[in-house]
């Protein structure tokens, strides 16, 4: 597991170096546990991961109301005062979240996030858990 997190570090750094304005990147499980992070502090990354679990659930509920949708969330972008928040499905039970300032261009960010997910999506997974244990 430690080696896997070390691998995430350079992959997330590559995204941060490629898009100006990134403040923090978090890889999280569907149940809101932080898998990896780049930038920011660990406590902030844990809070982002927990909030993202609710947001991806909400986005999925809204998606299921769209005729013809399979109900799965692909990407959420929220513009906030001073920046942007991005959340993208990134593998089985895993998500990629990015917080950026206003310098980051949303189209470039979403394309770079998608490229990262395509390149390493098989590694951005979180196995299902029961009672806090991996199944």
From TrEMBL:
Residue stretches making up the Roadblock/LAMTOR2 domain: 9-100
Domain of life: Bacteria
Keywords attached to this entry: Membrane, Transmembrane, Transmembrane helix
Record-annotated membrane-spanning stretches: 83-104
Name used for this protein in its record: Roadblock/LC7 domain-containing protein
């Amino acid at each position: 597991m430690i080696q896997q997190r070390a691998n995430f570090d350079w992959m997330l750094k590559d995204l941060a170096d490629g898009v100006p304005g990134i403040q923090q990147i978090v890889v999280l499980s569907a149940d809101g546990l932080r898998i990896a992070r780049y930038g920011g502090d660990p406590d902030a990354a844990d809070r982002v991961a927990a909030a993202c679990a609710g947001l991806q659930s909400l986005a999925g509920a809204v998606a299921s109301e769209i005729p013809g949708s399979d109900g799965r969330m692909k990407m959420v972008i929220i513009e906030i005062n001073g920046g942007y928040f991005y959340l993208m499905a990134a593998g089985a039970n895993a998500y990629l979240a990015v917080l950026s300032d206003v310098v980051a261009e949303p189209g470039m960010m979403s394309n770079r996030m998608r490229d990262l997910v395509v390149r390493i999506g098989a590694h951005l997974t979180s196995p299902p858990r029961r009672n806090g244990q991996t199944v």
